[in-house]
């Protein structure tokens, strides 16, 4: 990027929610579609790879559905008021229908060829209605679709609360305590109400989701109290019946019938997928411990796969026999991020809180979760009102060899449970191994922890600061005896300052100084002797952030206070160098340069300031980077440095600044859009299938597939034609000639490789004479080999032929010999 | 789909001695046999050949004992003065001993009278090759040559010093592990361990590789002499009060005399394992089953009361109270502790209360168990007075807690006093107050390898 003048803008960098709406399968269950922010992602169900990103909507995509009339097309709707039709195999937008209203979800049907059903809201913000939109037939790319007819009013906006019955005869909608069924033919609505106030557990009867049986007239509804009701005879408002299925102890989040309708799938907070066979209580199958709350369940049209979307931004593809076959995991956004953003020095992955009790390693380049590290190592029980152990803090040392984590659990009355764990990176197993576990390292919450990041430091050092008014220095000591070698962490020093709460700690770049802030005061300690060197106090509220300058600015110490003052102290003169008044919510130093990024919060939005500690003048200002509160930020070193020339953009050269907002969207600054960044890798995956293709696959996999195809001719049309092995004469020969008459393998090899090189041209079924000609062309180039081959075949067939004759074979004789070779000699084998 | 994660049992550092191979080896002796001698036992020497008799030198007598006999097989008492240093010749035919009057007597094992006597000064009879001289620094009590001949160990004062003879008597290492004079040295039969006995009534075992103490024995009196039998089968220690302590190694755990139940043949286990996959076969891997404890199996299926019952069985309560506490903690984390504790009859609640009485005052278990005790009191308060057995347990528990509170108060008073002392010591040094690390903090630190 030479053009430094290009404006830097804030871009989303992946990690958007995959679990916003139900995922959808393609007709052959090969692809899985899911909404992801403004995009639709197409995943391969076999390899879990993202094959396409369908981009075009300008707001959140709210619904996707296969085109019932063409199963290679996909409809989508969005808050931007458009319905778009896509070709998902090529990732092309075919058509855009402009409706104009905010669309909340979308349904399509085979019998209603040219119309789709969408949920929109009327003028009042909380009243939603189901309408059908007639899609006009037109050749133009953008079409206005204004023909809207009203179907149902006063419904829930969630697509889980709407279900279309068998053959589209009726639609069922639930809201609060009502189930309303609208019959398209009769154009009547029946309403069924559950008792809401009579029962002791009031409001537990609320409907949460609904599903319709694909064959019979049966509606399944899920409820707040975990019950599933199966409604029948609902065409009569008096004679209707329902049966209850009860296993869930908490709210039923989603329901789905299998394609044939023989089993019903349900899921909820228990993280268990329940399959009810034949709609009876007795026949249940479970798939337990799915990790987190099941938000959505969907079933593939072919009926062989299910998929569940989970609250931790994960989609699980589950086989018909309840075995997980694939997991598509996005950036986990289920819980509050208390560890902040970190960068793993080894993998350059972003590290933050993941699943409950886990630390997630997330690759920013591929927008994919690398792995989860289980920190708490306990069975996860998901229940309301349960106080979980939370992963509160984590830190890496500069080489990535050590990881420190702090977990805590505070119950109402009883004491705080606190545990610090130190993990060592094991090169052999390529993972972190627990080294030391320290129970109750402090008497109160740990507010900060940091490693000494000096390169030369032979002994890793960790500092923890706590609300109990102390900071502790932990060092790695040799714990080995004559029986084994071991290292462990022990407390080396405990420091405090007038019993104030320690709020922050930070090591200088060379590791010689440690700064610890105690409420309003910053103390600087010598890391050799642990003596207090000096104190700074600004009397402007508690210190919120603390960091040392880097490289040329290493003599400066920066701190921000709660009253909105940014101070820069000079460590040489022990005096205040400069201070500025603004409310800083994030202060993050760049590890590769002197730059420091500060995000200030104002009611309008967040502003970014980049500056060097040596001068109180910002190098770069970007106003209103986002409307929400920015919670965390981090500089991620670039793999390939950029070369911005302008002074304002120089801070982007070595590393990139990522930040996380309160609603947990991950944003960054870039001159490029994220699409440009992501596409090169995903483009490569678009080879015919997203199945792994190797030369072996071409030879053996395809060969086997064709054998199957012979049995099953019907499938053949759909399959993409690849060079067939049967068309390649050399392979044909190889496979059909008895082994004992074949020439040596070393000779065959070159022939075989040659045949592979030519294989692209041989699509058509070529006759045998063509074959011979072609082979002659090859063979005329290297006649020696041809002679050898002839010699070999001769040898096998006519043993009494003298060798001297073969060397002087004329062209015609050669041809005759070739004919001889074509003769089937397999009878020899029978002798 | 993740598999079930078993409950993490909080492990606590074992207080006191660490269990190592060496402690196991050196503790594997029977209770000592004590033999009273006439005076301080100055020397014990084992014969190097079977039946491994040993000669004990005490005052003016030399007794020869069989390995397992408590009565002497033979006694040499024709010394005019105190005898010293009775030592066997390598073929166990002759015994040599010194005496206070300056004579060295050569004794035949089978005869009573001395075979020969050497009189006069040492110079005439024993050649001392003075190759080099090492300065120990204190009066040398004992010397020992390693079988290889390269190392010399000397003891004197509180020190044991190891010298490298091949480097001309260079000091290799100086060990100061005793409080009083080290009187005797001995090598274990493997040569891997060095034993030293001292007047401080301790025998210490060192590793000859690292010269670290790997084990130590305690005796009732100051030790003067020490000997190990062949294969370390017997340790004999002679003490100043004239008592000879003989410890025999426990015989190896008896191979069960009953004919062992016939196990299934090897081919039963490999049945089907060596089947090669054919072309059209589909291999279905059976998931490997992870072994789970009984309480884990119950917890996995949410049988919480049953899981608690399992860990309240006497066997578990006595041997592994930390397991019980961990399960109570886990139930509390799951928010079902009250459910698990409720609905118990007299016998069952007595069992829970017994556990609480036994462990409530232990600092490591206290936070968890106090919470459990509160829940029990809340649940069973309405039915109190119905069972005299349970009421009695509650009263015991109350007494225990009152005692504990008094004890804690005293501790805090002491802590306050110490704080004051520390504060006055550091006041003029700097503005910061260095905290002392509380003892229980060190305890709670656990290092896992």
Automatic annotation (TrEMBL), chain A:
WD-type repeats, residues: 54-96
Ranges for domain WD repeat-containing protein 75 second beta-propeller: 341-664
SMART domains: WD40
Keywords from the named record: Nucleus, Repeat, Ribosome biogenesis, rRNA processing, Transcription, WD repeat
Highest taxon, organism lineage: Eukaryota
GO molecular function: RNA binding
Gene3D superfamilies: YVTN repeat-like/Quinoprotein amine dehydrogenase
Gene Ontology process terms (BP): positive regulation of rRNA processing; positive regulation of transcription by RNA polymerase I; ribosomal small subunit biogenesis; rRNA processing
Gene source species: Jaculus jaculus (Lesser Egyptian jerboa)
Protein's cellular compartments: Nucleus, Nucleolus
PANTHER family in the cross-refs: WD REPEAT-CONTAINING PROTEIN 75
A GO CC term attached to the entry: small-subunit processome
Official protein name in the record: WD repeat domain 75
Name of the coding gene: Wdr75
TrEMBL record, chain B:
Keyword field contains Transcription: no
GO biological process: positive regulation of transcription by RNA polymerase I; rRNA processing
Keywords: Nucleus, Repeat, rRNA processing, WD repeat
CC annotations in GO: nucleolus
Subcellular location: Nucleus, Nucleolus
WD repeats: 175-216
Subunit structure: Part of the small subunit (SSU) processome, composed of more than 70 proteins and the RNA chaperone small nucleolar RNA (snoRNA) U3. May be a component of the proposed t-UTP subcomplex of the ribosomal small subunit (SSU) processome containing at least UTP4, WDR43, HEATR1, UTP15, WDR75. Interacts directly with UTP4 and WDR43.
Function: Ribosome biogenesis factor. Involved in nucleolar processing of pre-18S ribosomal RNA. Required for optimal pre-ribosomal RNA transcription by RNA polymerase I. Part of the small subunit (SSU) processome, first precursor of the small eukaryotic ribosomal subunit. During the assembly of the SSU processome in the nucleolus, many ribosome biogenesis factors, an RNA chaperone and ribosomal proteins associate with the nascent pre-rRNA and work in concert to generate RNA folding, modifications, rearrangements and cleavage as well as targeted degradation of pre-ribosomal RNA by the RNA exosome.
Protein name: U3 small nucleolar RNA-associated protein 15 homolog
The encoding gene: Utp15
């Amino acid at each position: 990027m030479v053009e430094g003048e290009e404006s830097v803008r804030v871009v989303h960098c992946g990690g958007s929610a995959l679990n916003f709406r139900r995922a959808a399968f393609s007709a052959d269950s090969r692809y899985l579609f899911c909404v992801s922010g403004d995009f639709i992602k197409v995943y391969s169900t076999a390899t879990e790879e993202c094959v396409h990103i369908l981009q075009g909507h300008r707001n959140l995509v709210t619904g996707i559905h296969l085109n019932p009339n063409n199963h290679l097309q996909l409809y989508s709707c969005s808050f931007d008021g458009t319905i778009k039709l896509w070709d998902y195999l090529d990732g092309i937008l075919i058509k855009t229908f402009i409706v104009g209203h905010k669309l909340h979800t979308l349904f399509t049907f085979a019998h209603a060829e040219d119309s789709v059903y969408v949920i929109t809201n009327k003028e009042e913000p909380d009243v939603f209605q189901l309408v059908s939109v007639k899609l006009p037939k037109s050749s133009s790319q953008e079409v206005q679709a204004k023909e809207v007819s009203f179907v149902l009013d006063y419904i829930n906006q969630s697509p889980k609360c709407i279900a279309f019955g068998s053959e589209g005869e009726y639609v069922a909608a639930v809201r609060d305590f009502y189930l309303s069924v609208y019959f398209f033919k009769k154009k009547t609505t029946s309403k069924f109400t559950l008792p809401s106030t009579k029962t002791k557990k009031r409001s537990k009867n609320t409907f949460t989701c609904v599903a319709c049986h694909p064959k019979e007239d049966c509606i399944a509804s899920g409820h707040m109290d975990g019950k599933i009701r199966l409604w029948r005879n609902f065409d009569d408002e008096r004679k209707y019946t329902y049966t209850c299925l009860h296993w869930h102890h908490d709210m039923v989040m989603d329901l789905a019938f299998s394609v044939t309708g023989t089993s019903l799938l349900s899921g909820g907070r228990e993280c268990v997928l329940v399959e009810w066979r034949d709609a009876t209580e007795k026949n249940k199958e479970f798939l337990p411990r799915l990790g987190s709350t099941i938000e959505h369940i969907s079933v593939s049209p072919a009926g062989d796969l299910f998929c569940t979307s989970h609250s931790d931004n994960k989609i699980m593809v589950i086989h018909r026999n309840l075995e997980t076959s694939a997991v598509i995991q996005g950036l986990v956004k289920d819980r509050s991020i208390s560890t902040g953003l970190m960068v793993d020095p080894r993998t350059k992955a972003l590290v933050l809180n993941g699943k409950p009790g886990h630390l997630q390693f997330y690759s920013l380049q591929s927008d994919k979760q690398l792995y989860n590290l289980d920190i708490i190592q306990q069975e996860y029980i998901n229940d309301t009102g349960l106080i979980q152990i939370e992963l509160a803090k984590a830190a890496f040392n500069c080489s990535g060899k050590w990881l420190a984590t702090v977990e805590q659990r505070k119950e109402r009355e009883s004491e705080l449970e606190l545990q610090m764990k130190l993990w060592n990176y094991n090169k052999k197993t390529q993972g972190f191994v627990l080294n030391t576990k320290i129970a109750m390292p402090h008497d109160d919450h740990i507010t900060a922890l940091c490693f000494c990041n000096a390169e030369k430091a032979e002994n890793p050092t960790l500092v923890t600061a706590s609300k109990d008014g102390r900071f502790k220095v932990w060092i790695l000591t040799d714990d080995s005896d004559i029986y084994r070698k071991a290292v462990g962490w022990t407390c080396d020093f405990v420091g405090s300052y007038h019993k104030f709460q320690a709020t922050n700690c930070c090591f200088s770049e060379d590791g010689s100084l440690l700064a610890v802030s105690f409420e309003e005061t910053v103390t600087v300690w010598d890391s050799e002797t642990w003596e207090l060197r000096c104190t700074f106090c600004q009397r402007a509220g508690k210190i919120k952030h603390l960091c040392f300058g880097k490289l040329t600015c290493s003599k400066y110490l920066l701190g921000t206070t709660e009253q909105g003052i940014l101070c820069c102290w000079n460590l040489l003169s022990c005096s205040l160098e400069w201070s500025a008044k603004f409310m800083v919510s994030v202060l993050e130093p760049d590890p590769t340069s002197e730059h420091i990024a500060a995000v200030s919060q104002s009611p309008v939005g967040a502003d970014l300031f980049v500056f060097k500690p040596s001068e109180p003048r910002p190098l770069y200002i970007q106003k209103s980077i986002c409307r929400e509160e920015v919670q965390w930020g981090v500089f991620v070193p670039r793999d390939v440095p950029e070369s911005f020339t302008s002074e304002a953009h120089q801070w982007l050269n070595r590393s990139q600044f990522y930040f996380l907002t309160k609603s947990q969207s991950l944003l960054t600054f870039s001159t490029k859009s994220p699409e440009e960044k992501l596409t090169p890798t995903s483009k490569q995956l678009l080879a015919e299938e997203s199945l792994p293709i190797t030369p072996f696959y071409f030879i053996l996999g395809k060969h086997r597939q064709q054998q199957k195809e012979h049995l099953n001719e019907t499938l053949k049309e759909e399959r993409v034609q690849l060079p067939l092995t049967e068309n390649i004469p050399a392979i044909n020969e190889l496979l059909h000639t008895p082994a004992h008459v074949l020439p040596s393998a070393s000779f065959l090899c070159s022939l075989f490789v040659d045949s592979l090189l030519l294989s692209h041209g041989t699509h058509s079924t070529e006759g045998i004479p063509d074959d011979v000609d072609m082979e002659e062309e090859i063979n005329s180039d290297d006649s020696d080999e041809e002679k050898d081959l002839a010699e070999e075949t001769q040898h096998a067939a006519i043993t009494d032929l003298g060798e001297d004759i073969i060397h002087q074979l004329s062209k015609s004789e050669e041809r005759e010999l070739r004919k001889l070779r074509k003769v089937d000699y397999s009878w020899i084998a029978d002798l | 789909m993740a598999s079930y994660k078993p409950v993490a049992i909080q492990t606590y550092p074992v207080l006191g001695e660490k269990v190592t191979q060496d402690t196991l080896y050196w503790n594997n002796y029977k209770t000592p046999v004590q033999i009273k001698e006439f005076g301080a036992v100055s020397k014990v020497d084992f014969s190097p050949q079977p039946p491994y008799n040993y000669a004990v030198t005490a005052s003016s007598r030399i007794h020869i004992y069989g390995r397992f006999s408590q009565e002497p097989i033979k006694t040499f008492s024709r010394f005019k003065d105190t005898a010293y240093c009775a030592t066997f010749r390598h073929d166990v035919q002759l015994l040599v001993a010194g005496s206070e009057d300056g004579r060295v007597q050569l004794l035949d094992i089978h005869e009573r009278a001395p075979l020969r006597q050497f009189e006069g000064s040492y110079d005439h009879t024993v050649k001392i090759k003075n190759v080099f001289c090492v300065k120990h620094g204190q009066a040398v009590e004992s010397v020992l040559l390693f079988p290889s001949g390269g190392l010399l160990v000397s003891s004197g004062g509180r020190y044991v010093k190891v010298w490298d003879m091949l480097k001309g008597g260079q000091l290799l290492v100086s060990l100061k592990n005793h409080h009083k004079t080290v009187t005797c040295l001995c090598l274990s039969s493997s040569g891997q361990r060095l034993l030293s006995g001292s007047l401080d009534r301790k025998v210490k075992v060192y590793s000859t590789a690292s010269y670290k103490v790997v084990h130590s024995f305690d005796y009732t009196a100051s030790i003067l002499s020490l000997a190990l039998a062949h294969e370390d089968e017997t340790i004999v220690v002679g003490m100043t009060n004239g008592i000879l302590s003989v410890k025999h190694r426990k015989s190896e755990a008896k191979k069960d005399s009953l004919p062992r139940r016939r196990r299934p043949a090897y081919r039963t286990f490999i049945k089907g394992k060596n089947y090669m996959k054919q072309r059209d076969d589909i291999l279905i891997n059976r998931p490997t089953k992870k072994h789970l404890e009984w309480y884990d199996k119950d917890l996995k299926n949410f049988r919480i009361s049953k899981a608690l019952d399992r860990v309240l069985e006497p066997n578990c309560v006595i041997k592994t109270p930390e397991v019980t506490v961990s399960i109570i903690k886990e139930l509390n984390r799951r928010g079902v502790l009250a459910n698990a504790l409720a609905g118990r009859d007299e016998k069952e609640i007595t069992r829970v209360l017994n556990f609480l009485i036994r462990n409530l005052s232990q600092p490591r278990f206290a936070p968890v168990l106090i919470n459990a005790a509160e829940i029990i009191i809340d649940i069973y308060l309405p039915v109190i007075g119905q069972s005299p057995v349970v009421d009695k347990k509650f009263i015991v528990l109350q007494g225990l807690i009152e005692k504990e509170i008094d004890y804690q108060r005293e501790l805090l008073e002491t802590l306050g006093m110490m704080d004051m002392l520390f504060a006055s010591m550091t006041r003029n040094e700097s503005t910061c107050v260095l905290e002392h690390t509380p003892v229980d903090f060190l305890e709670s630190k656990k290092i896992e390898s």
